[in-house]
Write a structure and sequence with these properties.
By secondary structure, the chain is α/β, with parallel strands linked by helices. It binds adenosine-5'-diphosphate and magnesium ion.
Length: 679
């Protein structure tokens, strides 16, 4: 028997079984060996029959004292009933449709049964238990494999057992250092114990190794696929002498611990010759902008220019206003560039960017247009990264010579997942809000309480506050039973006679949206009825209440983002989630929102509610399918694997050495044709 043999070499596998196995992607013995259990049954504890409990799977050993082969009253199906006894009691064992078993059991012989006892007319019964006379086969922790039609658990276990002699052929593909540093067991030990663990501890060691391997292969593949690793040493190293202390001191507040840590990580990157590629992830309001400012200050003091790109005009404008004020104090000129500028103004700005008079350029996509040239661009920052494609990030990057890159996002994805989603980026997390923030009071309510809710909104408006109202639809729909933005806007215009209500939605032209947002920002609009276009970044400190209509149609992460639009000023703020219908998940989401304001916790819960597959649908992100790892659960292993991947690639960027040959093969196998790996 060899690893690359077809499964038909196995006893009991003919064309039919082979076809069924093929459905599980198992063609060779190696495929079979890499086909891991989804669960285990612990059959080590044999218990006395007298100790059986309803619904608790158990192994018993007993003597068959009575055999009754009934004819079913309604048909010709035969039922086999056994009475099984030991010293402590007896239990009925039942097999339906059991003609084939009629002569299997011998009276007064002992058998071992495994099954889940159920109560039937006051007696405990085991229905269709597994059974054997063979003490050895019944012992231990048994694997439970995912199956497909035409293959039984018993067959799968037998085949797996029959190829266990091949485990030793699994070669070690990692260096001794990596194995030792991560305390990995050997590949053959891992295989042996993932299929047939002798004890829990060994199973865990096995699983760790296999998950580690898979994630290491994934990470190495991803890293290697990116240009940045290859010419990683050609980055710009900012001057160590260019301190940022004076800038930090000029901020109106001390940095939070999380901000300071994040700044340290960035500075370290910036001073090294490796190109920085870092994602700053921080909940809404966590103060990412200040961190970006400090990085930009470092660039400018080192003799370079910096660029900050935001996804919408209003957001870019907001950043520009803030940065201009902060950098003026330090004699650093900030410029603004957007698509809607007057031509003369734009020409002047472009000139100043090119000559280097403008040290910091803030703008929209206008920044990546071909007419924009920098004098010496050393740092590129994109805000709300998830709104940009990788292509746009790269275009901005190409405005300089291997500039350092910082991307910021508030989309709360658990830390390490971001690494996968954003591929090659290092991640810094700001997991702490500035002190003194008031929690946003969040309440879910049924549609019948809508009136009361808008009464409350009106009170807030009367006090001079502003409000957001969010709906899932732009206009009425025949297919979806939800309130549309148009309908709600009409209603509220009549209702709030003394206040100005406006509608904004994603199908509008950008210029129109920008102008409405600007009006809201400046307080000319009191109530903004919107589809999710307002989800990102906008900062209107005077807005104190947000109402989400048909909140059952939004995911947790989205709801959290929406809620982040309020509570940005000194006013006590409120979030109302109107939940229509009885969906359990929606109710659960509502509950989580009411009880937590922690974006990372909410993101984790979001993952759990949706299941990692749904967001992660690896395919959607261009990642290969994983066999044993669960990106949502194996975060720590992923971290370790990532670190080792880096080490490997630093020493052997193109994986050309003999030592890395097997690793390379695995990468090619994992990624297959789906991702062009330039190895
Ligand atoms: P976001 O991470 O959502 O982009 P911002 O950078 O817009 O957050 O910051 C949100 C608000 O918090 C701003 O008004 C900013 O001035 C303030 N802020 C940032 N850092 C601190 C801090 N360390 N202490 C107090 N306020 C801070
Ligand atoms: Mg921001």
């Amino acid at each position: 028997m060899k690893l690359h043999d077809k499964v038909t070499e196995l006893k009991g596998v003919g064309p039919k079984k082979a076809e069924a196995l093929e459905k599980l992607n198992i063609r060779t013995l190696e495929d079979l060996m890499q086909f891991f259990p989804r669960d285990y049954e612990d059959r080590r504890n044999r218990i006395n029959i007298g100790a059986l409990k309803e619904d608790q799977p158990a192994v018993i050993k007993g003597k068959v004292v009575l055999i009754v082969g009934d004819r079913h009253r309604y048909g010709r199906k035969q039922i086999l009933r056994l009475l099984v006894s030991d010293d402590t009691g007896s239990c009925e064992v039942v097999f339906f449709n059991a003609k084939y078993l009629m002569s299997t059991f011998k009276k007064d012989s002992e058998y071992i049964f495994y099954g889940k006892p159920q109560m039937n007319f006051g007696k405990l019964q085991m229905i269709h238990p597994e059974f054997t006379k063979d003490e050895k086969a019944a012992e231990g922790i048994l694997p439970v494999y995912p199956l497909t039609k035409g293959i039984t658990q018993k067959e799968m276990r037998e085949w797996q057992r029959s190829i266990s002699c091949l485990y030793d052929e699994a070669d070690e593909f990692l260096s001794e250092e990596i194995v030792e540093r991560n305390r990995l067991c050997s590949p053959s030990y891992a295989l042996k114990n993932i299929h047939f663990p002798k004890e829990k501890q060994k199973l865990l060691e096995a699983k760790y190794r296999l998950v580690f391997d898979e994630l290491l292969v994934l990470q190495t593949g991803l890293f290697a696929a990116r240009e940045n690793i290859k010419n990683g040493e050609n980055g710009i190293a900012f001057s160590k002498g260019a301190g940022v202390g004076e800038y930090i001191d000029s901020l109106p507040y001390p940095l939070t611990g999380a901000q300071a840590r994040c700044v340290d990580e960035i500075i370290e990157d910036l001073e090294s010759t490796r190109v920085m590629n870092r994602l700053v992830q921080g909940d809404v309001g966590s103060g990412k902008t200040a961190v970006a400012e400090i990085a930009m200050y470092k660039a400018v003091r080192s003799g370079y220019q910096a660029a900050l790109m935001a996804p919408t005009e209003i957001l870019a404008r907001q950043h520009y206003d803030g940065l201009k004020k902060s950098f003026e104090k330090h004699g650093i000129e900030v410029g603004f560039l957007s698509g809607s500028m007057k031509a003369s103004e734009k020409r002047e700005t472009l000139e100043k960017i090119k000559s280097g008079v403008i040290r910091i350029a803030v703008g929209t996509h206008a920044l990546i247009q071909p007419d924009v040239e920098f004098d010496k661009l050393g740092l590129v920052i994109t805000d709300e990264q998830h709104r940009f494609g990788v292509g746009q990030r790269i275009r901005l990057k190409e405005k300089g010579q291997n500039p350092n890159i910082l991307v910021m996002t508030a989309t709360p994805i658990p830390r390490t997942l971001a690494v996968i989603l954003y591929g090659d980026l290092d991640v810094s997390v700001i997991d702490e809000l500035p002190p003194g923030r008031q929690a946003i009071k969040t309440k879910t309510l049924p549609p019948v309480n809508r009136d009361k809710c808008y009464d409350f909104v009106e009170k807030q408006l009367d006090e001079g506050r502003q409000a957001y109202v969010v709906t899932p639809l732009i206009e009425d729909s025949d297919v979806m039973d939800a309130r549309s933005a148009e309908q709600v806007a009409e209603e509220l215009k009549t209702r709030f006679k003394n206040h100005k209500t406006a509608l904004i939605h994603g199908a509008m032209k950008q210029a129109e949206k920008d102008s409405i947002m600007a009006d809201f920002y400046e307080g000319n609009i009191d109530v903004l009825v919107a589809t999710v276009v307002i989800e990102v970044g906008i900062n209107v400190p005077n807005a104190s209440v947000i109402v989400v209509e048909n909140a059952e149609r939004f995911g947790l992460a989205q709801l959290h983002q929406l809620r982040g639009r309020v509570g940005r000023g000194k006013h006590k703020s409120y979030c109302f989630l109107i939940l229509d219908g009885k969906s359990e998940i929606a109710a659960k989401r509502g509950e989580i929102m009411q009880n937590s304001s922690d974006g990372f916790y909410i993101a984790e819960e979001d993952l759990k509610l949706r299941g990692p597959g749904e967001i992660f649908g690896t395919r959607q992100h261009g990642l290969p399918d994983l066999n044993i790892s669960d990106l949502a659960r194996h975060l720590q292993v992923l971290d370790n694997a990532k670190r080792e991947a880096r080490t490997i690639l630093t020493e052997d960027p193109e994986l050309k050495s003999n030592e890395n040959m097997l690793l390379r093969q695995r990468i090619v196998k994992l990624f297959g044709e789906e991702m062009s790996l330039d190895l």
